[in-house]
Amino acid sequence: LFNNAPGPAYAAAEAVLAPCELVIEAVAEQCVGVKLQVACFERLGAPGWAALHRAARAARERELLVIADAKRGDIAVTAAAYAQAFFGGTSTPFGPVEGLGADALTVNPLLGEDSMAPLAEAARGLGSGLFVLVRTTNPGAGDVQELELADGLSVSERLAELVAQLGVVGDSGLSDIGAVVGATAPERMETLRERMPHASFLIPGVGAQGGAVEALGPAFSPGPAGGLIAVSRGIVSAYERRGGDPAAAARSEAESLRRRAWSLVP
Amino acid sequence: LFNNAPGPAYAAAEAVLAPCELVIEAVAEQCVGVKLQVACFERLGAPGWAALHRAARAARERELLVIADAKRGDIAVTAAAYAQAFFGGTSTPFGPVEGLGADALTVNPLLGEDSMAPLAEAARGLGSGLFVLVRTTNPGAGDVQELELADGLSVSERLAELVAQLGVVGDSGLSDIGAVVGATAPERMETLRERMPHASFLIPGVGAQGGAVEALGPAFSPGPAGGLIAVSRGIVSAYERRGGDPAAAARSEAESLRRRAWSLVP
Predict the structure, then answer these.
(1) Is the confidence at residue B3, as pLDDT, over 70?
(2) For residue A1, pLDDT beyond 80
(3) Residues ≥6 apart with Cβ < 8 Å to A155
(4) What is residue B264's predicted lDDT score, i.e. its pLDDT?
(5) In chain A, positions 136-175, which contact chain B (CB-CB < 8 Å)?
(6) CA nearest B205 in A: which residue?
(7) A interface mutation test: which of B36, B37, B98, B108 has the most A CBs within 10 A?
(8) Predicted model pTM
(9) What whole-number distance in Å separates Cα of residue A109 and Cα of residue B42?
(10) 3-state DSSP call for residue A155?
(11) Beta strands of A177-225 (E only): which ranges?
(12) pLDDT digits (tens, 9 = 90+) for A165-193
Protein backbone atom coordinates (compact mmCIF):
# COMPACT_ATOMS: atom_id res chain seq x y z
CA LEU A 1 0.00 0.00 0.00
CA PHE A 2 2.73 2.41 0.89
CA ASN A 3 5.53 3.70 -1.17
CA ASN A 4 8.37 2.85 1.17
CA ALA A 5 10.64 5.62 -0.02
CA PRO A 6 9.76 8.52 2.29
CA GLY A 7 8.63 11.22 -0.13
CA PRO A 8 7.40 14.81 0.33
CA ALA A 9 4.22 13.76 2.19
CA TYR A 10 6.22 11.86 4.74
CA ALA A 11 8.70 14.72 5.26
CA ALA A 12 5.88 17.27 5.44
CA ALA A 13 3.98 15.19 7.99
CA GLU A 14 7.06 15.00 10.19
CA ALA A 15 7.50 18.77 9.80
CA VAL A 16 3.86 19.33 10.82
CA LEU A 17 4.14 17.04 13.82
CA ALA A 18 7.23 18.71 15.28
CA PRO A 19 5.64 22.10 16.13
CA CYS A 20 2.48 20.29 17.32
CA GLU A 21 4.56 18.41 19.86
CA LEU A 22 6.41 21.60 20.79
CA VAL A 23 3.20 23.55 21.43
CA ILE A 24 1.57 20.67 23.32
CA GLU A 25 4.57 20.52 25.60
CA ALA A 26 4.68 24.30 26.01
CA VAL A 27 1.00 24.84 26.90
CA ALA A 28 0.24 21.61 28.76
CA GLU A 29 -0.07 23.29 32.14
CA GLN A 30 -2.23 26.16 30.91
CA CYS A 31 -4.76 24.18 28.86
CA VAL A 32 -7.18 21.31 29.50
CA GLY A 33 -7.07 19.95 26.00
CA VAL A 34 -5.87 20.14 22.44
CA LYS A 35 -8.15 20.64 19.44
CA LEU A 36 -6.60 18.93 16.43
CA GLN A 37 -7.78 20.28 13.09
CA VAL A 38 -8.05 17.05 11.12
CA ALA A 39 -8.02 18.72 7.68
CA CYS A 40 -4.46 19.92 8.19
CA PHE A 41 -3.28 16.34 8.62
CA GLU A 42 -5.65 14.80 6.08
CA ARG A 43 -4.18 16.80 3.21
CA LEU A 44 -0.90 14.91 3.73
CA GLY A 45 -2.59 11.56 3.07
CA ALA A 46 -1.45 8.45 4.90
CA PRO A 47 1.60 10.08 6.55
CA GLY A 48 -0.69 12.89 7.67
CA TRP A 49 -2.98 10.41 9.42
CA ALA A 50 0.00 8.82 11.10
CA ALA A 51 1.06 12.28 12.31
CA LEU A 52 -2.48 12.95 13.57
CA HIS A 53 -2.32 9.80 15.70
CA ARG A 54 1.10 10.85 16.98
CA ALA A 55 -0.10 14.35 17.90
CA ALA A 56 -3.07 12.84 19.78
CA ARG A 57 -0.70 10.54 21.64
CA ALA A 58 1.55 13.46 22.59
CA ALA A 59 -1.46 15.28 24.04
CA ARG A 60 -2.60 12.22 26.01
CA GLU A 61 0.90 11.75 27.42
CA ARG A 62 0.62 15.26 28.84
CA GLU A 63 -2.82 14.38 30.26
CA LEU A 64 -4.56 16.74 27.89
CA LEU A 65 -8.00 16.03 26.42
CA VAL A 66 -7.95 15.34 22.68
CA ILE A 67 -10.66 17.06 20.68
CA ALA A 68 -10.74 15.91 17.06
CA ASP A 69 -12.08 18.81 15.01
CA ALA A 70 -13.35 16.86 12.04
CA LYS A 71 -16.97 18.07 11.77
CA ARG A 72 -18.17 14.68 10.58
CA GLY A 73 -21.80 13.87 9.86
CA ASP A 74 -23.32 11.09 7.75
CA ILE A 75 -26.09 8.51 7.68
CA ALA A 76 -26.07 6.10 10.62
CA VAL A 77 -24.10 3.24 9.05
CA THR A 78 -21.37 5.67 7.99
CA ALA A 79 -21.47 7.59 11.26
CA ALA A 80 -20.68 4.28 12.95
CA ALA A 81 -17.55 4.00 10.80
CA TYR A 82 -16.51 7.54 11.75
CA ALA A 83 -17.04 6.59 15.38
CA GLN A 84 -14.59 3.73 14.88
CA ALA A 85 -12.08 6.10 13.28
CA PHE A 86 -12.18 8.74 16.00
CA PHE A 87 -13.04 6.81 19.14
CA GLY A 88 -12.53 3.16 19.99
CA GLY A 89 -11.29 1.57 16.79
CA THR A 90 -12.37 -1.27 14.52
CA SER A 91 -12.49 -5.04 14.98
CA THR A 92 -11.05 -6.79 11.94
CA PRO A 93 -10.30 -10.44 11.14
CA PHE A 94 -6.64 -9.44 11.47
CA GLY A 95 -7.00 -8.05 14.97
CA PRO A 96 -8.17 -4.78 16.49
CA VAL A 97 -7.31 -1.54 14.70
CA GLU A 98 -6.93 1.42 17.03
CA GLY A 99 -9.06 4.53 16.61
CA LEU A 100 -7.75 7.99 17.28
CA GLY A 101 -8.88 7.65 20.90
CA ALA A 102 -10.35 11.15 20.95
CA ASP A 103 -12.04 12.47 24.06
CA ALA A 104 -14.40 14.44 21.86
CA LEU A 105 -15.26 14.87 18.20
CA THR A 106 -16.90 17.82 16.47
CA VAL A 107 -20.04 16.77 14.61
CA ASN A 108 -22.18 18.35 11.90
CA PRO A 109 -25.92 17.91 12.66
CA LEU A 110 -27.40 18.64 9.21
CA LEU A 111 -28.41 14.97 8.79
CA GLY A 112 -30.39 14.95 12.02
CA GLU A 113 -30.64 12.90 15.14
CA ASP A 114 -30.06 9.42 13.71
CA SER A 115 -26.79 10.57 12.14
CA MET A 116 -25.47 11.65 15.54
CA ALA A 117 -26.75 8.74 17.64
CA PRO A 118 -24.05 6.19 16.65
CA LEU A 119 -21.36 8.76 17.41
CA ALA A 120 -22.99 9.64 20.74
CA GLU A 121 -23.26 5.97 21.72
CA ALA A 122 -19.66 5.20 20.83
CA ALA A 123 -18.46 8.27 22.71
CA ARG A 124 -20.62 7.52 25.75
CA GLY A 125 -19.31 3.98 26.05
CA LEU A 126 -15.79 5.33 26.37
CA GLY A 127 -16.43 8.34 28.61
CA SER A 128 -15.94 10.62 25.61
CA GLY A 129 -18.30 13.15 24.08
CA LEU A 130 -19.35 15.17 21.07
CA PHE A 131 -19.43 18.86 20.25
CA VAL A 132 -22.24 19.48 17.77
CA LEU A 133 -22.01 22.50 15.47
CA VAL A 134 -24.70 24.96 16.56
CA ARG A 135 -23.31 28.41 15.69
CA THR A 136 -20.01 28.60 13.85
CA THR A 137 -17.58 31.53 13.67
CA ASN A 138 -17.36 32.15 9.96
CA PRO A 139 -18.97 35.09 8.13
CA GLY A 140 -21.26 32.72 6.21
CA ALA A 141 -22.58 31.03 9.35
CA GLY A 142 -25.76 33.04 9.01
CA ASP A 143 -26.55 31.66 5.53
CA VAL A 144 -28.12 28.56 7.07
CA GLN A 145 -27.73 28.67 10.85
CA GLU A 146 -29.43 32.04 11.26
CA LEU A 147 -32.39 31.35 9.01
CA GLU A 148 -35.66 32.05 10.78
CA LEU A 149 -38.00 29.10 11.08
CA ALA A 150 -41.78 29.23 10.82
CA ASP A 151 -42.06 28.86 14.62
CA GLY A 152 -39.86 31.91 15.19
CA LEU A 153 -36.72 30.05 16.23
CA SER A 154 -33.50 30.24 14.27
CA VAL A 155 -31.99 27.07 12.80
CA SER A 156 -29.22 27.37 15.45
CA GLU A 157 -31.80 27.42 18.23
CA ARG A 158 -33.44 24.30 16.80
CA LEU A 159 -30.01 22.63 16.60
CA ALA A 160 -29.50 23.58 20.24
CA GLU A 161 -32.72 21.73 21.13
CA LEU A 162 -31.46 18.65 19.28
CA VAL A 163 -28.22 18.83 21.29
CA ALA A 164 -30.14 19.06 24.57
CA GLN A 165 -32.29 16.04 23.62
CA LEU A 166 -29.34 13.93 22.57
CA GLY A 167 -27.22 14.43 25.68
CA VAL A 168 -27.11 12.51 28.93
CA VAL A 169 -26.46 14.70 31.97
CA GLY A 170 -23.97 13.26 34.45
CA ASP A 171 -23.39 13.83 38.16
CA SER A 172 -21.29 16.87 37.25
CA GLY A 173 -24.40 18.59 35.93
CA LEU A 174 -22.91 18.60 32.45
CA SER A 175 -24.16 16.70 29.41
CA ASP A 176 -21.93 14.39 27.39
CA ILE A 177 -23.08 16.16 24.23
CA GLY A 178 -21.71 19.67 23.95
CA ALA A 179 -22.05 22.35 21.31
CA VAL A 180 -19.77 24.45 19.15
CA VAL A 181 -20.80 28.05 19.73
CA GLY A 182 -18.47 30.62 18.23
CA ALA A 183 -17.16 33.63 20.12
CA THR A 184 -17.83 35.80 17.08
CA ALA A 185 -21.57 35.95 17.85
CA PRO A 186 -21.64 36.59 21.64
CA GLU A 187 -25.13 38.05 21.34
CA ARG A 188 -26.35 34.53 20.50
CA MET A 189 -24.65 32.85 23.42
CA GLU A 190 -27.24 33.63 26.06
CA THR A 191 -30.25 32.33 24.10
CA LEU A 192 -28.33 29.23 23.06
CA ARG A 193 -27.30 28.63 26.68
CA GLU A 194 -30.99 28.79 27.71
CA ARG A 195 -31.79 25.97 25.29
CA MET A 196 -28.73 23.91 26.28
CA PRO A 197 -28.41 24.46 30.05
CA HIS A 198 -26.18 21.40 30.57
CA ALA A 199 -24.00 21.42 27.45
CA SER A 200 -20.31 22.23 27.42
CA PHE A 201 -19.68 24.92 24.86
CA LEU A 202 -16.62 24.55 22.67
CA ILE A 203 -15.88 28.14 21.75
CA PRO A 204 -13.68 28.90 18.74
CA GLY A 205 -13.24 32.35 17.28
CA VAL A 206 -11.27 34.11 20.03
CA GLY A 207 -8.25 36.03 18.77
CA ALA A 208 -7.49 35.57 15.08
CA GLN A 209 -11.21 35.50 14.21
CA GLY A 210 -12.07 38.56 16.29
CA GLY A 211 -13.98 37.24 19.33
CA ALA A 212 -13.24 38.54 22.84
CA VAL A 213 -12.95 36.34 25.92
CA GLU A 214 -14.73 38.93 28.05
CA ALA A 215 -18.00 38.52 26.12
CA LEU A 216 -18.32 34.81 26.88
CA GLY A 217 -19.88 34.94 30.34
CA PRO A 218 -23.08 32.96 29.57
CA ALA A 219 -21.02 29.99 28.41
CA PHE A 220 -19.78 29.49 31.95
CA SER A 221 -23.11 29.63 33.75
CA PRO A 222 -23.08 25.86 34.52
CA GLY A 223 -19.63 26.27 36.08
CA PRO A 224 -16.00 26.32 35.01
CA ALA A 225 -16.35 23.33 32.67
CA GLY A 226 -19.31 24.92 30.87
CA GLY A 227 -17.02 26.55 28.36
CA LEU A 228 -13.92 25.38 26.53
CA ILE A 229 -12.28 28.28 24.75
CA ALA A 230 -10.48 26.96 21.69
CA VAL A 231 -7.67 29.22 20.54
CA SER A 232 -5.44 27.84 17.82
CA ARG A 233 -3.78 30.49 15.68
CA GLY A 234 -3.73 32.93 18.61
CA ILE A 235 -1.52 30.58 20.63
CA VAL A 236 0.50 28.88 17.90
CA SER A 237 1.41 32.20 16.27
CA ALA A 238 1.79 34.20 19.49
CA TYR A 239 5.51 34.75 18.84
CA GLU A 240 4.62 36.82 15.77
CA ARG A 241 3.06 39.43 18.08
CA ARG A 242 4.97 38.83 21.29
CA GLY A 243 8.35 38.08 19.74
CA GLY A 244 10.87 35.75 21.30
CA ASP A 245 10.89 31.99 21.52
CA PRO A 246 7.76 30.47 19.88
CA ALA A 247 7.18 27.96 22.69
CA ALA A 248 7.57 30.58 25.42
CA ALA A 249 5.28 32.97 23.54
CA ALA A 250 2.65 30.23 23.16
CA ARG A 251 2.83 29.48 26.87
CA SER A 252 2.49 33.15 27.84
CA GLU A 253 -0.48 33.63 25.53
CA ALA A 254 -2.19 30.49 26.87
CA GLU A 255 -1.56 31.64 30.43
CA SER A 256 -3.02 35.06 29.76
CA LEU A 257 -6.11 33.57 28.10
CA ARG A 258 -6.57 31.11 30.95
CA ARG A 259 -6.50 33.90 33.52
CA ARG A 260 -9.02 35.98 31.58
CA ALA A 261 -11.32 32.95 31.11
CA TRP A 262 -11.24 32.01 34.80
CA SER A 263 -12.23 35.54 35.74
CA LEU A 264 -15.56 34.87 33.95
CA VAL A 265 -16.49 31.84 36.03
CA PRO A 266 -19.29 32.63 38.48
CA LEU B 1 5.79 8.05 11.74
CA PHE B 2 4.83 4.57 10.71
CA ASN B 3 5.24 1.37 12.52
CA ASN B 4 7.01 -0.58 9.80
CA ALA B 5 5.76 -3.97 10.92
CA PRO B 6 2.53 -4.39 8.92
CA GLY B 7 -0.09 -4.83 11.65
CA PRO B 8 -3.85 -5.39 11.57
CA ALA B 9 -4.63 -1.99 10.05
CA TYR B 10 -2.33 -2.68 7.14
CA ALA B 11 -3.76 -6.17 6.55
CA ALA B 12 -7.33 -4.88 6.88
CA ALA B 13 -6.68 -2.03 4.43
CA GLU B 14 -5.34 -4.52 1.88
CA ALA B 15 -8.40 -6.70 2.47
CA VAL B 16 -10.70 -3.70 1.93
CA LEU B 17 -8.91 -2.65 -1.24
CA ALA B 18 -9.12 -6.05 -2.92
CA PRO B 19 -12.94 -6.18 -3.34
CA CYS B 20 -12.95 -2.47 -4.27
CA GLU B 21 -10.63 -3.23 -7.17
CA LEU B 22 -12.68 -6.29 -8.07
CA VAL B 23 -15.96 -4.35 -8.19
CA ILE B 24 -14.41 -1.41 -10.05
CA GLU B 25 -13.16 -3.83 -12.71
CA ALA B 26 -16.49 -5.67 -12.84
CA VAL B 27 -18.77 -2.64 -13.26
CA ALA B 28 -16.50 -0.32 -15.24
CA GLU B 29 -18.51 -0.60 -18.44
CA GLN B 30 -21.88 -0.12 -16.76
CA CYS B 31 -21.07 2.88 -14.57
CA VAL B 32 -19.74 6.39 -15.12
CA GLY B 33 -18.07 6.70 -11.75
CA VAL B 34 -17.29 5.29 -8.37
CA LYS B 35 -18.40 6.86 -5.11
CA LEU B 36 -15.84 6.09 -2.43
CA GLN B 37 -17.18 6.26 1.14
CA VAL B 38 -14.22 7.86 2.88
CA ALA B 39 -15.28 6.80 6.42
CA CYS B 40 -14.75 3.14 5.56
CA PHE B 41 -11.10 3.84 4.75
CA GLU B 42 -10.55 6.46 7.43
CA ARG B 43 -11.28 4.02 10.24
CA LEU B 44 -8.19 2.07 9.22
CA GLY B 45 -5.94 5.08 9.83
CA ALA B 46 -2.88 5.68 7.67
CA PRO B 47 -3.09 2.35 5.79
CA GLY B 48 -6.77 3.11 5.14
CA TRP B 49 -5.85 6.42 3.51
CA ALA B 50 -3.27 4.68 1.38
CA ALA B 51 -5.97 2.21 0.30
CA LEU B 52 -8.36 5.08 -0.48
CA HIS B 53 -5.75 6.58 -2.83
CA ARG B 54 -5.24 3.18 -4.44
CA ALA B 55 -8.98 2.65 -4.95
CA ALA B 56 -9.24 6.08 -6.58
CA ARG B 57 -6.35 5.22 -8.86
CA ALA B 58 -7.99 1.94 -9.86
CA ALA B 59 -11.15 3.83 -10.80
CA ARG B 60 -9.22 6.41 -12.84
CA GLU B 61 -7.36 3.67 -14.68
CA ARG B 62 -10.75 2.34 -15.79
CA GLU B 63 -11.73 5.89 -16.87
CA LEU B 64 -14.33 6.14 -14.16
CA LEU B 65 -15.11 9.39 -12.36
CA VAL B 66 -14.04 9.39 -8.70
CA ILE B 67 -16.58 10.84 -6.28
CA ALA B 68 -15.16 11.19 -2.76
CA ASP B 69 -18.10 10.85 -0.38
CA ALA B 70 -16.63 12.68 2.60
CA LYS B 71 -19.33 15.28 3.37
CA ARG B 72 -16.76 17.85 4.44
CA GLY B 73 -17.64 21.37 5.52
CA ASP B 74 -15.66 23.86 7.61
CA ILE B 75 -14.66 27.51 7.80
CA ALA B 76 -12.88 28.84 4.72
CA VAL B 77 -9.26 28.34 5.84
CA THR B 78 -10.01 24.72 6.74
CA ALA B 79 -12.14 24.13 3.66
CA ALA B 80 -9.07 25.12 1.65
CA ALA B 81 -7.12 22.34 3.40
CA TYR B 82 -9.87 19.83 2.58
CA ALA B 83 -9.69 21.02 -1.03
CA GLN B 84 -5.99 20.17 -1.02
CA ALA B 85 -6.74 16.73 0.45
CA PHE B 86 -9.41 15.76 -2.06
CA PHE B 87 -8.49 17.66 -5.20
CA GLY B 88 -5.15 18.98 -6.36
CA GLY B 89 -2.80 18.42 -3.44
CA THR B 90 -0.53 20.55 -1.27
CA SER B 91 2.66 22.45 -1.98
CA THR B 92 5.23 21.81 0.73
CA PRO B 93 8.88 22.81 1.18
CA PHE B 94 9.66 19.16 0.49
CA GLY B 95 7.86 19.06 -2.85
CA PRO B 96 4.26 18.66 -3.97
CA VAL B 97 2.02 16.23 -2.06
CA GLU B 98 -0.69 14.67 -4.21
CA GLY B 99 -4.35 15.06 -3.33
CA LEU B 100 -6.87 12.31 -3.90
CA GLY B 101 -7.52 13.72 -7.37
CA ALA B 102 -11.27 13.38 -7.01
CA ASP B 103 -13.58 14.46 -9.80
CA ALA B 104 -16.15 15.45 -7.20
CA LEU B 105 -16.49 15.75 -3.44
CA THR B 106 -19.64 15.67 -1.33
CA VAL B 107 -19.94 18.79 0.81
CA ASN B 108 -22.00 19.74 3.87
CA PRO B 109 -23.42 23.27 3.51
CA LEU B 110 -24.34 23.99 7.17
CA LEU B 111 -21.54 26.58 7.44
CA GLY B 112 -22.83 28.55 4.47
CA GLU B 113 -21.50 29.97 1.26
CA ASP B 114 -18.01 31.00 2.37
CA SER B 115 -17.33 27.47 3.61
CA MET B 116 -18.07 26.06 0.16
CA ALA B 117 -16.35 28.69 -1.96
CA PRO B 118 -12.74 27.45 -1.47
CA LEU B 119 -13.85 23.92 -2.37
CA ALA B 120 -15.76 25.18 -5.41
CA GLU B 121 -12.78 27.20 -6.62
CA ALA B 122 -10.33 24.34 -6.20
CA ALA B 123 -12.70 21.98 -7.99
CA ARG B 124 -13.40 24.44 -10.81
CA GLY B 125 -9.70 24.98 -11.50
CA LEU B 126 -9.32 21.26 -12.14
CA GLY B 127 -12.53 20.59 -14.07
CA SER B 128 -13.95 18.87 -11.01
CA GLY B 129 -17.08 19.65 -9.03
CA LEU B 130 -18.98 19.40 -5.78
CA PHE B 131 -22.16 17.66 -4.69
CA VAL B 132 -23.71 19.67 -1.87
CA LEU B 133 -25.99 17.88 0.61
CA VAL B 134 -29.52 19.15 0.01
CA ARG B 135 -31.82 16.26 0.97
CA THR B 136 -30.23 13.13 2.39
CA THR B 137 -31.65 9.61 2.51
CA ASN B 138 -31.67 8.85 6.20
CA PRO B 139 -34.79 8.75 8.41
CA GLY B 140 -33.53 11.73 10.43
CA ALA B 141 -33.03 13.92 7.34
CA GLY B 142 -36.22 15.73 8.20
CA ASP B 143 -34.96 16.85 11.63
CA VAL B 144 -33.15 19.79 10.08
CA GLN B 145 -33.50 19.67 6.29
CA GLU B 146 -37.32 19.61 6.31
CA LEU B 147 -37.79 22.38 8.85
CA GLU B 148 -40.14 25.05 7.54
CA LEU B 149 -38.66 28.52 7.30
CA ALA B 150 -40.48 31.76 8.01
CA ASP B 151 -40.74 32.44 4.26
CA GLY B 152 -42.47 29.11 3.65
CA LEU B 153 -39.51 27.30 2.11
CA SER B 154 -37.95 24.24 3.70
CA VAL B 155 -34.30 24.30 4.75
CA SER B 156 -33.60 21.93 1.83
CA GLU B 157 -35.16 24.35 -0.63
CA ARG B 158 -33.00 27.17 0.75
CA LEU B 159 -29.93 24.93 0.43
CA ALA B 160 -30.96 24.30 -3.17
CA GLU B 161 -30.93 28.05 -3.79
CA LEU B 162 -27.41 28.27 -2.34
CA VAL B 163 -26.32 25.49 -4.69
CA ALA B 164 -27.79 27.30 -7.68
CA GLN B 165 -26.01 30.55 -6.70
CA LEU B 166 -22.66 28.86 -6.18
CA GLY B 167 -22.49 26.99 -9.47
CA VAL B 168 -21.13 28.03 -12.83
CA VAL B 169 -23.12 26.64 -15.76
CA GLY B 170 -21.00 25.31 -18.61
CA ASP B 171 -21.69 24.77 -22.32
CA SER B 172 -23.28 21.45 -21.45
CA GLY B 173 -26.07 23.28 -19.66
CA LEU B 174 -24.97 21.72 -16.39
CA SER B 175 -23.52 23.49 -13.36
CA ASP B 176 -20.22 22.48 -11.79
CA ILE B 177 -21.94 22.43 -8.39
CA GLY B 178 -24.35 19.55 -8.03
CA ALA B 179 -26.55 18.39 -5.18
CA VAL B 180 -27.10 15.25 -3.17
CA VAL B 181 -30.82 14.50 -3.37
CA GLY B 182 -31.82 11.14 -1.97
CA ALA B 183 -34.08 8.71 -3.79
CA THR B 184 -35.94 8.06 -0.54
CA ALA B 185 -37.87 11.34 -0.86
CA PRO B 186 -38.91 11.36 -4.54
CA GLU B 187 -41.78 13.73 -3.74
CA ARG B 188 -39.15 16.43 -3.02
CA MET B 189 -37.24 15.91 -6.23
CA GLU B 190 -39.44 17.99 -8.49
CA THR B 191 -39.44 21.10 -6.27
CA LEU B 192 -35.71 20.80 -5.70
CA ARG B 193 -35.14 20.45 -9.44
CA GLU B 194 -37.10 23.68 -10.01
CA ARG B 195 -34.70 25.55 -7.71
CA MET B 196 -31.60 23.89 -9.21
CA PRO B 197 -32.38 23.64 -12.94
CA HIS B 198 -28.73 23.14 -13.94
CA ALA B 199 -27.36 21.00 -11.10
CA SER B 200 -26.36 17.37 -11.46
CA PHE B 201 -28.14 15.36 -8.81
CA LEU B 202 -26.14 12.69 -7.01
CA ILE B 203 -28.85 10.28 -5.93
CA PRO B 204 -28.15 7.79 -3.16
CA GLY B 205 -30.81 5.66 -1.52
CA VAL B 206 -31.76 3.30 -4.35
CA GLY B 207 -31.89 -0.35 -3.34
CA ALA B 208 -30.72 -1.08 0.22
CA GLN B 209 -32.27 2.17 1.51
CA GLY B 210 -35.60 1.63 -0.25
CA GLY B 211 -35.67 4.15 -3.11
CA ALA B 212 -36.89 3.15 -6.60
CA VAL B 213 -35.19 4.17 -9.84
CA GLU B 214 -38.54 4.66 -11.56
CA ALA B 215 -39.46 7.59 -9.28
CA LEU B 216 -36.44 9.66 -10.25
CA GLY B 217 -37.70 11.21 -13.50
CA PRO B 218 -37.33 14.90 -12.50
CA ALA B 219 -33.63 14.41 -11.80
CA PHE B 220 -33.03 13.81 -15.49
CA SER B 221 -34.93 16.79 -16.88
CA PRO B 222 -31.68 18.60 -17.92
CA GLY B 223 -30.63 15.49 -19.83
CA PRO B 224 -28.88 12.21 -19.19
CA ALA B 225 -26.13 13.74 -17.03
CA GLY B 226 -28.67 15.47 -14.79
CA GLY B 227 -28.75 12.50 -12.46
CA LEU B 228 -26.07 10.20 -11.11
CA ILE B 229 -27.67 7.27 -9.32
CA ALA B 230 -25.30 6.09 -6.60
CA VAL B 231 -25.85 2.47 -5.64
CA SER B 232 -23.30 0.97 -3.29
CA ARG B 233 -24.60 -1.89 -1.17
CA GLY B 234 -27.08 -2.88 -3.90
CA ILE B 235 -24.22 -3.56 -6.33
CA VAL B 236 -21.48 -4.74 -3.99
CA SER B 237 -23.79 -7.22 -2.25
CA ALA B 238 -25.76 -8.26 -5.33
CA TYR B 239 -24.45 -11.83 -5.10
CA GLU B 240 -26.32 -12.25 -1.80
CA ARG B 241 -29.60 -11.93 -3.71
CA ARG B 242 -28.57 -13.11 -7.17
CA GLY B 243 -26.16 -15.82 -6.09
CA GLY B 244 -23.12 -16.87 -8.08
CA ASP B 245 -19.85 -15.08 -8.59
CA PRO B 246 -19.76 -11.73 -6.71
CA ALA B 247 -18.16 -9.83 -9.60
CA ALA B 248 -20.60 -11.21 -12.16
CA ALA B 249 -23.54 -10.46 -9.86
CA ALA B 250 -22.29 -6.88 -9.35
CA ARG B 251 -21.99 -6.41 -13.10
CA SER B 252 -25.50 -7.80 -13.76
CA GLU B 253 -27.01 -5.56 -11.09
CA ALA B 254 -25.21 -2.49 -12.44
CA GLU B 255 -26.33 -3.33 -15.96
CA SER B 256 -29.93 -3.70 -14.88
CA LEU B 257 -29.86 -0.40 -12.98
CA ARG B 258 -28.25 1.36 -15.92
CA ARG B 259 -30.98 0.17 -18.28
CA ARG B 260 -33.74 1.28 -15.93
CA ALA B 261 -32.10 4.68 -15.41
CA TRP B 262 -31.66 5.32 -19.14
CA SER B 263 -35.33 4.60 -19.70
CA LEU B 264 -36.07 7.71 -17.61
CA VAL B 265 -34.08 10.10 -19.77
CA PRO B 266 -36.37 12.35 -21.80
Answers:
(1) no
(2) no
(3) A144, A145, A146, A147, A149, B144, B147, B155
(4) 84
(5) 136-145, 147-150, 152, 155, 158-159, 162
(6) A75
(7) B108
(8) 0.97
(9) 20
(10) helix
(11) 177-181, 201-203
(12) 999 999 999 999 999 999 998 899 999 99
pLDDT at B101: 97
How large is the greatest C-alpha to C-alpha distance in chain B, in angstroms?
59
In this structure, are residues B156 and B146 in contact, taking their beta carbons and an 8 Å threshold?
yes
Q: What is the reported pLDDT for B5?
A: 65
- Residue-wise pLDDT tens digits, B153-164: 999 999 999 999
Q: Pick from A12, A109, A111: which is nearest to B97 by CB?
A: A12
Name every chain B residue with its beta carbon within 8 A of the beta carbon of A91: none
- Residue B108's Cα: distance from chain center in Å? 12
User: Which tens digits make up the pLDDT trace of B134-144?
Assistant: 999 999 999 99
On whether the CB atoms of residues B184 and B139 are closer than 8 A, the answer is no
pLDDT in tens, B223-249: 888 999 999 999 999 999 988 899 999
Q: Is A71 a catalytic residue?
A: yes
Taking the C-alpha atoms of residue B117 and residue B92, their distance in angstroms, rounded to an integer, is 23
Bridge partners of residue B175, in order along the sequence: B169
The alpha carbon of residue A40 is apart from the nearest alpha carbon of chain B, in Å, by 6
